[in-house]
Amino acid sequence: MLQDLVDDAAAIAGSKYKLSQLLNKPPGRVYLWKLGTQLPTPEDIVAMAMVAGRDPFDALAHIRGGFWVEIAQVVRIWRHTK
């Protein structure tokens, strides 16, 4: 999931380098995320999800797990009741 998110966000940004500029991160950081050797912060996951046109809560739930799964479920329910 993380690798797909990085690829999708980079494709929309123009490249992994341009994605790193957009996120104000060193280019090597995005490469480490792509390899899965380092996890992005929740803020970076949200930013990449928004660039890629994905739901930020779902991205957090899939990549970070834990309480983010519960938050994503609550948000899904809340969205359907609006």
Describe the structure.
With 82 residues, the protein is mostly helical. It has a single domain (2-81), classed as Orthogonal Bundle (434 Repressor (Amino-terminal Domain)), CATH 1.10.260. Helix content is 77%, strand content 0%. It is built from 6 helices and no strands. It has helices spanning 2-13, 16-22, 27-35, 42-52, 56-64, 67-81. The longest helix is centred in the C-terminal third of the chain and has 15 residues, at 67-81. The protein starts with a helix and ends with a helix. The model has no long low-confidence stretch (mean pLDDT 90).
CATH 2nd-level architecture: Orthogonal Bundle
The proportion of residues in beta strands is under 5%
How many strands appear in the DSSP assignment? 0
- What overall form do the CA principal axes indicate? elongated
Summed up, the domain count is 1
Helix content: over 70%
Tell me the structural class.
Answer: mainly alpha
What value does the average pLDDT take? 90
Q: What is the CATH class?
A: Mainly Alpha
**Main β-sheet description:** none
Taking all Cα atoms into account, the compactness measure Rg is: 13 Å
In whole angstroms, the N-to-C terminal distance is 29 Å
- Treating each run of at least 4 consecutive H or I residues as one helix, how many helices? 6
Uncertain stretches of 5 or more adjacent residues:
none
Do you know the CATH topology? 434 Repressor (Amino-terminal Domain)
Output the helix-strand order: HHHHHH
